[in-house]
Write a structure and sequence with these properties.
It comes from Candidatus Methanofastidiosum methylothiophilum. The protein has about 290 residues and is of the alpha+beta class. Helices cover about 55% and strands about 15% of the residues.
Length: about 290
C-alpha cells in the first residue's frame, strides 16, 4: 500500500510538472529566450537604412521669383548621398577601429554605433559614418579594406532645384521686408503701425523657416551618410553540450513552475466557486428535508 502511494505521488508530481510545462510554454515560451541587445554608444541609429529627408518639408507659396535653369547651372550641384553596406569581418572591435581611421583619412567621422552578441558569442553591430560629399564614392570603394563586402547600395538625390528655389523665395521675402520697413517709417496711425508689424512678423517667420531649410540642405549635401553593418562569422564550436543541456533543463523547470502558477491562478477561483456551490446545494437540501 505504501509503495502504491509513493508511485501515485511521483506520477502525480510528473503530471503536474508536465502540465505546468505545457501551460508555461504556451504563455511564456516565445519570450523566455529573447536576446538582449548591448549598445556601445548612446546614439540612436536610423530605423532603416537609406532614404533622405522629405524634400517637401517646407511650405511652398506662390511668389514672383522662380529658379531658372541658368540659376541652377550657375552653382555647384546640391546632392544628398546615402549608402549602406553589409560587411563580414574577422574581428568586430579591430574593424571598428579601422573604420574610424578610414573615415578620418577621408575627412569624415562616426556619428553613431551599436553592438550586440549572438548566441555563439560572435559580435555584430551597426556603424553610421559621415563622409564629405566629394569623397563619398571613394570611401565606399575602400570598404574592402575592412572585410568581405557582402552587399553595398548607394543613392543620390539632387536637391539643387529646391535649393535655388528657396534662395529665390528668401530674396523675394527680404525685398518685401524692406518695403514694409519703409512703409512703417511713413505710418501715420497706430492701426497702420500694427498692421505693418503683423506683416513684418509673418515675413520674418517665413524667412527664418526657409533659412533653416537652406542650412539643413547645406549640412546634408556637404556630407554623405554611410550605414555599415558588421558581422563576425558564426563560430563552429565542438562540445559535449552538457552546459547547453543543463541550461535548457533549468529553463524547462522555470517554465514548468511558471505554468503551475498560471494554472493555479486559473483553477483556484474555479475550486473556490465549486466549493461555495457545493455548500449552498448541501444547505438547500437540508432545508428541503426539514
Amino acid at each position: 500500500m505504501k509503495k502504491s502511494f509513493i508511485v501515485f505521488g511521483v506520477v502525480g508530481i510528473l503530471v503536474i510538472l508536465l502540465t505546468g510545462f505545457f501551460v508555461g510554454h504556451l504563455f511564456l515560451g516565445s519570450s523566455i529566450y529573447s536576446k538582449k541587445t548591448i549598445y556601445e554608444d548612446d546614439i540612436p541609429l536610423p530605423t532603416r537604412y537609406g532614404g533622405i529627408a522629405n524634400s517637401g518639408a517646407y511650405t511652398k507659396e506662390a511668389t514672383q521669383v522662380y529658379a531658372t535653369s541658368r540659376d541652377i547651372n550657375s552653382i555647384d550641384r546640391k546632392v544628398v548621398k546615402n549608402g549602406s553596406a553589409n560587411i563580414e569581418v574577422e574581428n568586430f572591435d579591430s574593424s571598428v577601429s579601422k573604420i574610424k581611421e578610414l573615415a578620418n583619412s577621408f575627412g569624415g567621422y562616426i556619428t553613431g554605433s551599436s553592438m550586440w552578441t549572438s548566441g555563439s558569442n560572435t559580435k555584430n553591430g551597426n556603424i553610421t559614418v559621415k563622409i564629405p560629399e566629394n569623397k563619398f564614392e571613394i570611401f565606399g570603394d575602400s570598404l574592402v579594406q575592412i572585410g568581405k563586402v557582402k552587399s553595398k547600395e548607394t543613392s543620390a538625390n539632387d536637391v539643387t532645384e529646391e535649393y535655388i528655389d528657396i534662395q529665390a523665395r528668401i530674396k523675394n521675402l527680404k525685398n518685401q521686408e524692406y518695403r514694409y520697413i519703409e512703409l512703417l517709417s511713413m505710418a501715420k496711425s497706430v492701426e497702420d503701425v500694427l498692421a505693418i508689424e503683423v506683416q513684418l512678423g509673418r515675413i520674418r517667420s517665413e524667412i527664418e523657416s526657409y533659412e533653416r531649410r537652406i542650412k539643413y540642405l547645406d549640412n546634408t549635401t556637404s556630407y554623405g551618410t554611410f550605414y555599415l553593418t558588421l558581422n563576425e562569422p558564426e563560430k563552429v564550436v565542438h562540445e559535449w553540450g552538457i552546459k547547453k543541456a543543463f541550461n535548457q533543463a533549468i529553463d524547462a523547470l522555470i517554465i514548468s513552475i511558471a505554468g503551475i502558477i498560471i494554472l493555479g491562478g486559473f483553477l483556484i477561483p474555479i475550486a473556490i466557486l465549486a466549493g461555495i456551490l457545493y455548500f449552498v446545494v448541501k444547505y438547500v437540501r437540508k432545508r428541503i428535508k426539514k
